[in-house]
Amino acid sequence: MFMDGIFSWLGKELSALWTAVKPEATAVFKTFVSTFEGAALAAVQAQVAADISGAQKFSNAGDQLTTIVKNAGWTASTTAINTLIQDAYTTYKASQGQVLVTPPAGG
Q1: What is the pTM of this model?
Q2: pLDDT at residue 2 above 70?
């Protein structure tokens, strides 16, 4: 019973904290993406012709982007780096004429 009360209180406190920091966290991530999206695309393009597995290409591009991010003074999680690399790969595929999405008819 006591622990239920603590968890309930803690949940409310964490929710309030997230509500307070969410706008800043979102803004920082958007700045991160806009700052490094070109570097991510370049890292992906550098791996395209390599005769290695797709997983190794992804890993190499991620390592290259991580180095660039760190050298710029940023700290980024693996999830943030992987998100940027995946988005860059999608952008690369679209630039090669491989349509990945189609708008609704008449749109």
Answers
A1: 0.75
A2: no
